[in-house]
Amino acid sequence: MRPWRRALEVYRDRRMLAIVCMGFSSGLPLLLVFSTLSYWLREAGVSRTAIGLFVLVGISYSFKFVWSPFIDRLPIPFLTRRLGRRRSWALAIQIPLMVAIFALGSTDPKTDLAATALFAVIVAFLSASQDIVIDAYRIELLRPEEQGAGAAATQWGYRIGTLAASTGVFDAAQFGGWRFAYTIMAALMFVGIAAVLLTREPVVPAAALRQPGGTRGERIAVWIRTAIIDPFLDFMQRRAWAAILVLIVLYKLGEALAGTMSNTLYQELGFAKDEVGNIGKIVGLVATLSGVAIGGALVARLGLFRALLIAGALQMLGNLLYIALLLAGHNDVMLAASIFGENFTGGMASAAFVAYLSSLCNIAFTATQYALFSSLAAVPARFLSAPSGWLVDQFNWIPFFLLATLACLPSLLLLVWLKRHAGIDAPAAALPAE
Length: 434
Known about the structure:
mainly alpha
C-alpha cells in the first residue's frame, strides 16, 4: 500500500488546489451556454427549432486551436511583463468572461433573442479561450510525473463547476430568477481569478519565449512560423504521429456513443426525471470524482501506457452495465450501479487521457498543441456519436450497446501498437530542435 500512498500524496500539493480552482472556472461557463440556457429558452417560449440552432454558439470549443497560437505567443502590453505569459492572458480573458456571463443573464430571450444569442457566443468564445490558457498553465506548472494528478485535479474542479452551472443555477433561478442566477455564476468566476493571482507563473526555458529580431517583415515572418507552423511541424516529427491523432479521436468513442443515448434509455425504461436527476447528480458526481482521482494515481504509480490500457479496458466494460440495466428493467439499484460504473470508469479514463494529451505537448507550444489535441478529443462527442440514435432504431438497445463496447477496442489495440512503435510514457522534448 505504501507505493499507492505515495502516489496519492501528490494531491496534497497546494498547486493541485489551484488547478482544482482553475478547473472550476473552466467548467462553470460551459452549461451556461448549452443545456442550462436551453432550459431557460424553452421556459421563455422560444421554439424548439431556435433552441436547436443555439448549439452553434459553442462552435468555439471545436475550433479554439485556430486562435491558440496568438494566446500562446503574443504578449499583452503592460500585463505580461508584470504577471507573466500565462497569468496575464488568464486574467485578460477571465474578467471579460465574468462580465459576459452577467450580460447574458441580463438579456430577455422573450423580447430580444438576438441579444441572448450574441452574448452566448461571446461567453462561449471567451470560455474556450480560457480553456487554452488554463490547460497550458496546468501542463507547464507540473512536472511530467505529476501530470496524471493534475489531470484529475482539473477534472475535479471542472465537474464541480458544471454542477454549479446546472443544479446551482436552477436552484438560484427558482429563488430569484434567471438574471439573479447568472449574476451568481458571474461572481463565482472570482474563484478562477483568485487562483491565478495566488499561483506563481510557470517557469519556462527562455528559448521558448525568444522574440525574433531583424526588420519588421522578418519579425512577422518568423513569428508566423514560430507561432503557427512550428507547433504542427514539431508534432509531425514524432514517430507515428498520424496514429497518435487517430488514438486521440478513438479513445473516448465507445463511451461517447453509449453516453449519448443514456438519458433516452432511462426515459424508455420508465425512470422519472427526479429519479434520474437525483441518482445521477449524487452517484454520478461521487463516481466521477473518485474515478478521476484513481486514474491520476494510476498514471503516477503505473505510468501512462498501463494507466491508459487499464482505464480504457474498464471504460469498455462499463458500457456493458447499460445492458445489465436493460435486463433488470425499472430498478433503481441497477440504475445507480449503471450510473456509478459508467462515471467511475469514464473518470479514470479521462484522467489518464488528459495526462497523455499533456505529455504530447512541447513546452514551447503548450497552448497551441493542447488546444489541437483537445479539439480532436471532442470529435467523438460532437460528431462521431451523432448516428447513435439511428443505430438504436436499426439494431435495438442490446446490439447497440454491444457495438458501443466493441467501439472501444480499436483504440486499445492501437495503444498497444503505439507502445511498441512510438513509446507512450516518454514526454515531449522541452524545446524543438534548432
